Amino acid sequence: MLHAALTASVLVGAAGLGLILLNLAVIPRLGPPGRAARRSPRVSVVIPARNEERDVEAAVRSHLAQDYPDFEVIVVEDRSSDATARVLEGIAREDSRLRVLAGVEPPPGWLGKPHALAQGAAAATGELLLFVDADVRYGPGALGEAVHYAEARRLDFLTLLPRIEMRGLWENVLMPYLFVAFFQAPGFLANWPRPRWVAAGGGAGNLVRRLAYDAVGGHAAIRASVVDDVRLGFAVKGAGYRFGLVRAESRIGVRMYRGFREVFDGFTKNAAYVYQGVPGTILFALTLLTLGSGLLPPAVLASAGLGARIPAADVALAAVALAVAVLARLVLAGSLGDPLWPAFSNPIMVAVWTGILSRSLYRRFVSRRLTWRGRDFEARRARF
């Protein structure tokens, strides 16, 4: 049994490495256009902000510094209890392109962030809407390059993959899981017209054509979504609109969380909600397989090191499985420009993320409470 499980761990690791190499080779990068854009449609950048005093100023100023010719920035100040509103008011006095909307409490059935984005979208005047979180910073040419990419390919939705900035021990150990999970899956299929149920989305930037957004019902259609940015991408592609995904780590950066506690609590909020429906069930099974394959080999090696009687062949298999996992991490980190040393902490990352997922599942199905940024919701009403 142990031998078969370790063999499976080696195969899972090899498959993950293969998918990383394939995704890195196939998913395009955002960069300067080869020729001038034929048109520059008006863009409305819509940002929800609740208790974001730490990051919102740098983020908003980065959007206002874009070299794109026709855009507006709309920030929905979602009833913050910190200095977010004061920071935004100060920026708005300096730059008329920033509009600060006073958000209202979400009505029954709505989660806070989708409701804030819906308010921003209702006030927007752009042909294109860029939904982006309040802690994401854009380089000066990012918006223009994204619009040109979407226009040249006649896309209705474009997801921008950012650089995840990490500082300190725990951020470097835990945050790479996001891209490890993505690049070890068939993410490249998001750029294919079919299957329609393979899509993506993210708080770093969802650029969507207004016509497509309205056609799928906007955020009202995903009002109870915990991961609304991902869900919006699925909704648009699922409706048959043209979808695109690009790597933008050289243009866009975000430091999502600071330290162990923020990472642990932040992902506890939404990790369990991606497992919904038939695709979610399949994803859950694959997640368990990959987590198990990440935990078993180091556990076997540690046991052998402590004197447990384990066949030499199984110890060798465990060493190979661990080496393949570390190699995959090194390849991905090197390609994304991230530090290499966290690859060697892969067993710790897997163990902590197993805890995050377990806690998130408990919150969703047992305690049935969803708490974030000072608001409580009933978990049974929340959705992917």
Which properties best describe this structure?
12 strands; alpha/beta; 384 residues; Spore Coat Polysaccharide Biosynthesis Protein SpsA, Chain A; 7-stranded mixed beta sheet; 13 helices; 3-stranded mixed beta sheet; single chain; 2 domains
Characterise the protein shown here.
The longest helix is centred in the last third of the chain and has 29 residues, at 277-305. Strand 11 and strand 12 form a beta hairpin. The protein is of the alpha/beta class and 384 residues long. The protein is built from 13 helices and 12 strands.
Number of strands: 12
Q: If you compute it from the alpha carbons, what radius of gyration comes out, rounded to the nearest whole angstrom?
A: 21 Å
* Architecture (CATH level 2) name of the largest domain: Alpha-Beta Complex
Percent of residues in helices comes to 40-55%
And the CATH topology of the largest domain? Spore Coat Polysaccharide Biosynthesis Protein SpsA, Chain A
CATH top level assignment of the largest domain: Alpha Beta
Shape: globular
Write the topology of this structure.
Layout lengths: L1 H25 L16 E7 L6 H9 L6 E7 L6 H11 L3 E5 L9 H12 L4 E4 L4 E3 L3 H11 L4 E5 L1 E2 L3 H7 L2 H7 L22 E4 H6 L12 H11 L4 E5 L4 E3 L4 H12 L6 H29 L6 H25 L9 H22 L1 E4 L2 E4 L6
Parallel strand pairs: 1-2, 1-4, 2-3, 6-9, 7-10
Antiparallel strand pairs: 4-8, 5-10, 6-8, 11-12
Helix pairs in contact: 1-11, 1-12, 2-3, 10-13, 11-12, 11-13
